[in-house]
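Data deposition worksheet. Section B asks for the primary sequence of the deposited chain exactly as it was used as input, without tags or linkers unless they were present during the calculation. Section C holds the resulting structure in token form. Section D is free text for depositor observations; keep each observation to a single sentence. Incomplete worksheets are returned to the depositor.
Section A, Depositor: J.P.
Section B:
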Amino acid sequence: ERACPYSAIRQYVECGARARRQWPANVVSSVHTREAHLEAIRTGPYGRCVWRCDNDVVDHQVVAMEFAGDVTATFTMTAFTNGGGRRLRVHGAEGELAFDEKKIVLRRFGEKTAETIAIPRETGGHGGGDNRAIRSWLEAIRQGDPSRVLTSAQESLRTHRIVFAAEQSRREKRAVEIEEEAAESKRVPSDASRGSEASSLSTRGG
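Section C:
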């Protein structure tokens, strides 16, 4: 067990006092002492061997998406990487954009130089995004101004439909089509309702 790179003892217990208070080790127990974490993996789900349990959540996945207007996108997720985080590349007719949580790089075709925008480092979940979402929501309540909310519940619901469709595609081993309902689109703010009227997904993973 100690030689396994996914050892629960090494990941959640012997990772050090500071790491036990940070994600992902802090999820195993509300008390972050070595003894509490050791007891948590002895009695809870986080101590189970990843190779010998019934958890069927994917550890790698590729989702291919096709939107209206022949717009295509792919999403790749993998647990087998030393560096976490999110990376995004957008390719268009006039240029391309790359994002890696530290900076945004915009390259226009035909130009020799690229435009780089540094992203300030923030603490908190999802690169500080969780804290920003809560702060914007509280500010909207204080000022009675819904426009201060960075992302609406309707928009989150629409994006999560893609996640659910990807899982359905994986389980059923077929492409899944998502149809936008007119009634739903009317409930979504105009800035969040832009996009395709229909999309299809197919996925592979394990």
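Section D:
The radius of gyration is 21 Å.
Residues 182-197 have pLDDT under 50 and may be disordered.
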